[in-house]
């Protein structure tokens, strides 16, 4: 991934993290579960690479479950645990994962993910295109989202 793409992705993840005190982690994983970027609100012993890989496996499994019963392609997933939530949303060839504690507004988290998913999807798509196509497209994305 190009450094300029990673910088924009990190800025977006940090914006997501800053919205609510209950958001603990935000990650972007590729389709195979490899971390493209991750941020954490606190110093942690959590292995975010492993966490992301497991999140990807679960996401793909649930997508297959939806296909089996005729529901089609997955849009997002919310998993509730005793101590928090994990939100996952597809980004084309990657996915966004946000982990929170229980004291969050689920609608705000979903809204954040829906707000930033289009820009993340564009950046991920661009990062696999030829370098000659990237600069102008990135400028447009920056302007659209007021990132810089």
* Record field, number of beta strands: 5
**What class would the helix/strand composition place it in?**
alpha+beta
Nearest-integer average pLDDT: 86
User: Any idea of the CATH class?
Assistant: Alpha Beta
Main sheet summary: 5 strands, antiparallel
The dominant shape is globular
- End-to-end Cα distance: 20 Å
Integer count of domains: 1
Sequence of secondary-structure elements: HEEHEEEHH
What is the CATH architecture descriptor?
2-Layer Sandwich
Number of helices: 4
Sequence stretches where pLDDT stays below 50 over 5 or more residues = 130-134
Write a structural description:
- By secondary structure, the chain is of the alpha+beta class.
- The protein has a single domain, classed as 2-Layer Sandwich (Beta-Lactamase), CATH 3.30.450.
- 48% of the residues lie in helices and 22% in strands.
- The protein has a five-stranded antiparallel beta sheet with strand order 2-1-5-4-3, sandwiched between helices.
- A hairpin with a 4-residue loop joins β3 and β4.
- The longest helix has 21 residues, at 48-68.
- Residues 130-134 have low confidence and may be disordered.
Throw out a few tags for this protein.
148 residues, alpha+beta, Beta-Lactamase, 22% strand, 5-stranded antiparallel β-sheet, 4 helices
Brief account:
This protein is α+β, with helices and mostly antiparallel strands and 148 residues long. It contains 4 helices and 5 strands.
Write the layout of secondary structure elements.
Elements: H1 3-19, E1 23-30, E2 35-40, H2 48-68, E3 76-80, E4 85-90, E5 94-100, H3 106-126, H4 134-145
Antiparallel strand pairs: 1-2, 1-5, 3-4, 4-5
Helix pairs in contact: 1-3, 3-4
